[in-house]
Amino acid sequence: MFCFQCQETSKGTGCEIMGVCGKTPEVSDIQDLLLAVARGVAVYNDALRSENNASLEADKFVVDAMFISITNANFDFEAIKNKVKEGLALKKRLAAALVNTPANLPDECLWDGDESEFMTKAKEVGVLRTKDEDIRSLKELVHYGLKGMAAYAEHAYNLDKVDAELSSFMQRALVQLTREDISVNELIALTLETGKYGVQAMALLDAANTGKYGNPEITEVNIGVSTNPGILISGHDLRDIEDLLIQTEGTGIDVYTHSEMLPAHYYPELKKYKHLVGNYGGAWWQQKEDFDSFNGPILFTTNCIVPPSKSASYRGRIFTTGAAGLDGAKHIAERKDGQSKDFSEIIAMAKISQAPREIETGSIVGGFAHNQVIALADKVVEAVKSGAIRKFFVMAGCDGRMKSRNYYTEFAEALPKDTVILTAGCAKYRYNKLPLGDIGGIPRVLDAGQCNDSYSLAVIALKLKEVFGLEDINDLPIVYNIAWYEQKAVIVLLALLHLGVKNIHLGPTLPGFLSPNVAKVLIENFGIGGITTVEDDMQAFLAS
Ligand code: FS2
Ligand code: SF4
Fold it and tell me: Which residue in 292, 370, 390, 504 has the most C-beta neighbors within 10 A?
C-alpha cells in the first residue's frame, strides 16, 4: 500500500504499512484498483459521450468509486471488491457500445482479470505508478479534488439533482489522468479547472439541500439528552436523515446527529421533526468515547468512520449506508425506484436500547448559511463600518486527531473580541462550545453548516464584496485560516482558488502529497501558507 491522501498520513509523507486511519493494506490496494477501473470506465464513457451515447450508469459508477475511496468512508474489502467486479463488467459493456474505439487506449481500459488477479494488479496501479514526483503530486491533487467533488455530487444525486456537466468534467479529467505524457502545465490547468467545477458541485448540492429542506436558519441545538432510546446518525447525507426521521416518527425513539450531521438541525424541513432532539458528542475522531456512551445504534451515511477495536462496546451497533462501509457492520441497501431506504433493523435495535448517557448539557447555535447571513447583511455591514467588527476569520474545514490541532482552539480563544469566525465543516468542534459571546447580537462563531457549506462562506464573501463596492475579493477584511483533513477539503480549497481567494493558510500541516515544486507553485501564485504559532499568526493576520 501507499497512501498520502489525508493530513494524518504517516510521518507526513505516506502510509506504507497500515493506514493511520485504520485502512489495511488490502483495503488500500483494492481501493487503488477500484480507482483504476473507474478511470477505465471514464475513458470509455467519455468516448461514448462524443458519440452522444454516454451512459448514466457509468456516470453513477465513477461518482460512487471516487467517493468510496475517500478517507474514512469505506473499510469493507468485500464491498469494494464487488464494486471492482461491477466496474469491470460495466467497462466491457461500454466498450461494446462504442462505434469508434479511440486509438491508444490506456492500460486502465485494456486490463481485465478475475478475482485471483486483483491484488497483483492493484499493486501496479496505485499512487507510485507515476514516477515523476511533480506529475504524481499534481495527478493526485486532481484525483483528490475529484473525490471531494464526487461526494458532493452523490449527495445532490440522492436529492434528484444531477448536473451532466459535472459528470462530463469528472470523466474528462480522469481521461487526462490516465495519460503518461501529460505535462506539468497541463496538470496545473486541470487542477484549476477542477476548482471551477468544485464551485459548481457545491452550488448544486446547496440548491439540492435548500430546495428540498429550505434555507438554513438560526437554530439552537441541544447537546444534552432525552430519556428515550436514540439513534445516532453521522456523515453528511440529508436524504438519509430525512428517511430516518420519517421512519422513526411516533415510535418513541429520538434521533441525534453526530459530527458533520449537526447542520441537519438548521433546515426547516428537518428541524420540524420533534424527535430530532439534539447533537451528541464531538467531532468524528472522538467517536470511540461518544459511541460507547450513546447506548443505541449508530448510522454512518458517509465518512468519517474510525474502525472500532475488537472489544469496542458499540461494535455491534454500527450500521453503514451509501458510500460508507465497515467490515462486520450491517450495510443498509440503496433506495430502489425513488423509495426510502429501509431502516427498520436500526429502529428495532433502538427499541431495545437504553437511552443515551448524558455527556454534556447546554446548546450550540448555528444556521448561518448564505441566505440567513444575507438576511442579516445590514446589521453585519453596519458592524463593519462602525468598526464593531474588525475582521472575519474563515476557519472552515476539518477536525482531526493530531494534538497540533489544539492550535485552532487556542487561536479562537485568542482572537480579539471585535472579530468573527465564519465556519463550516467539522473544524468547528475545536471552538463551537467556547463562550466567545457576540457582537451586537451577532454571534462570534457563525456556523454555515457542513464542509460543503463552505460554498455559503464564498457566497457571503462575494456578497460583502458587492456591498462594499470592492474590485477584489481579497480586499475584504477576511482572513482564511483553514484546517484540512480529507479530500473534501481539497475540493473546497481548489474552489476558493478558482474564486480568486489568495493567501489561504492551511493547517495543521501542508499536504504530504504536494511535491516541493508543486507547493512552490501554490505559494508563489496563490500565497498559500501554513500556520506557525498562535501568537505569531495572530499578529500577522491582524496586521494583514
Ligand atoms: Fe469532517 Fe470527516 Fe465534512 Fe470531512 S467528518 S473530516 O468527512 O467531510 O469534514
Ligand atoms: Fe494514511 Fe490518510 Fe491514506 Fe488513511 S487516508 S491510509 S491515514 S494517508
Answer: 370
